[in-house]
Amino acid sequence: MRLTLLLAAACLSLTGCATIKSWFAPSDPPARVEQPDESLRWGAPALAPSTPPARVEQPDEALRRTVRPPASAAPRTAPPAPPRPRPPAPVPAPPPPALDVPPPVLSPVLSAVDEQRLRAETQQRIDGTEQRLRQIDPAKLASAQLDSLRTVQSFLDKAREAVQAQDIQRAYTLADKAYLLADELSRHPR
After folding, report:
1. Residue from 177, 77, 59, 189 nearest 135 by CA
2. Secondary structure of residue 87 in the 3-state scheme
3. Count of other CB atoms within 10 angstroms of residue 129
4. pLDDT for residue 113 is more than 60
5. How many whole angstroms separate alpha carbon 120 and alpha carbon 125?
6. Residue 172 falls within a domain, yes or no?
7. Helices 143-164 & 168-187 angle (0-180, nearest 10)
8. Is the pLDDT of residue 58 over 70?
9. How far apart are CA 49 and CA 37, in angstroms?
10. Which of 4, 78, 154, 158 is the most buried (most CB within 10 A)?
11. Lowest mean pLDDT among 58-62, 140-144, 165-169, 171-175
12. What total number of domains does the chain contain?
């Protein structure tokens, strides 16, 4: 019984492989079907044995006679076209330049009293710095001190601009720096 089952399983597996192979192998044209010999029919008159039987062509035979390419030659396919590069993204036009519009001021909101007090202190620092600068003779300063003098003057100019722009806290900071540097220069002239 086991032997029979093993034999049946082997036969089925072999026929399965043959079926799978037929999926990948090129198919041969079907065999030609010929009409049976008329002399072999019951009651048909006997023909001479020397005459060959008449051959009747099937309608599909005309199609099978067309020339086929050899099965081993695979049809050539063109290589896939390379992907087209994407066009560059359009660059947005730059915004038109602002004409004499100062940038917005980002500073904490001060009460009116605090703003007045800060404005007065800023003006005192600017005036005190200008007074100290008048006391300094630039001809007597060393090169490092001349650089400090230019920095003080730059801070003063920026402090005045900040006052004009209503940025009081920035103006005070710049005026204070200018005042401290000018004070240092006036104490240690060479």
Report:
1. 189
2. coil
3. 25
4. yes
5. 9
6. yes
7. 160
8. no
9. 11
10. 158
11. 58-62
12. 1
Residue holding tokens 């076209």?
Answer: 81
**Within-domain flag for 76:** no
Rounded distance, CA 73 to CA 58, Å?
A: 29
Which token pair is 53? 């039987």
Comparing 60 with 137, the larger pLDDT belongs to 137
What percentage of the chain reaches a pLDDT higher than 70? 57
- Full residue range of the structural domain in which residue 155 is found: 112-187
- Give 88's contacts (C-beta < 8 A, 6+ positions apart): none
* CATH for 136: 1.20.5
Angle at CA of residue 40, ends 34 and 41, nearest 5°? 95
The answer to whether position 98 is within a domain reads no
pTM score of the predicted model: 0.44
Q: Is 125 among the domain residues?
A: yes
Token look-up 């200018």 returns 178
